[in-house]
Specification:
It contains ten helices and no strands. With 190 residues, it is an all-alpha fold. The protein folds into two domains: 3-74, Rna Polymerase Sigma Factor, Chain: A (Orthogonal Bundle), CATH 1.10.1740; 88-177, Winged helix-like DNA-binding domain superfamily/Winged helix DNA-binding domain (Arc Repressor Mutant, subunit A), CATH 1.10.10.10. The termini are far apart.
């Protein structure tokens, strides 16, 4: 492997898992996920310069991925689809900034919580309008900050913040109906 290729591999390695996670949200199956990541990396390689490595933030890879996915959608070869993630990845949905948390949820047993996550969060996220779902996925699965999401979507950061706030509000509303207070939380209020 030459030096440029080694530098590129070193650059993409920390983003590898997030690329696959986000790619699954844009395509229908694992084969298409691999194709999308491969096409993203091929396009990134064409424009990568090890001398300018600092000029290529993580968001750059997601901009490329989104553009590839949009190209595929425009040609009607692929469709945007949200798929269920393993429970371990779904727990990251609550990983927002401390100053803007989800409405407090009553205590649930681990078994009840996992059951709740598997179907209801995926269904709630899937029910979001496309722009809100995309911002949420780029934040949660892609691990991107508002400014990076704005770069990926090529829109103002205020738009990203607004979409995220609406996505969170919609999730709170959809999920609040499914949570029943536990006996312990009822007793604590008494």
């Amino acid at each position: 492997m030459n030096q440029a290729a080694a530098t590129f591999v070193g650059y993409i390695r920390p983003h590898w898992g997030r690329l696959h996670t986000v790619a699954r949200q844009y395509v229908a199956n694992d084969n298409e996920t691999s194709d999308l990541v491969q096409e993203t990396l091929l396009r990134a390689w064409r424009h990568f310069s090890s001398a300018e490595q600092a000029a290529f933030p993580a968001a750059w890879l997601f901009v490329i991925m989104r553009n590839v996915a949009l190209d595929w959608q425009a040609s009607a070869r692929r469709r945007l689809k949200l798929t269920l993630l393993p429970v371990s990845q779904l727990t990251e949905v609550a990983g927002f900034e401390d100053d803007d948390t989800f409405a407090s949820l009553p205590a649930l047993s681990e078994e009840a919580f996992r059951e709740f996550l598997d179907e209801r969060i995926a269904a709630a996220v899937d029910a979001l309008d496309g722009p809100y779902r995309e911002v949420l996925i780029l934040s949660v699965a892609g691990g991107l900050h508002y400014r990076e999401i704005a770069e990926v979507l090529d829109c103002p950061i205020g738009t990203v913040m607004s979409r995220m706030a609406r996505a969170r509000r919609a999730l709170r509303e959809r999920l609040a109906d499914h949570v029943k207070p536990s006996r312990a939380s009822k007793e604590a209020r008494s």
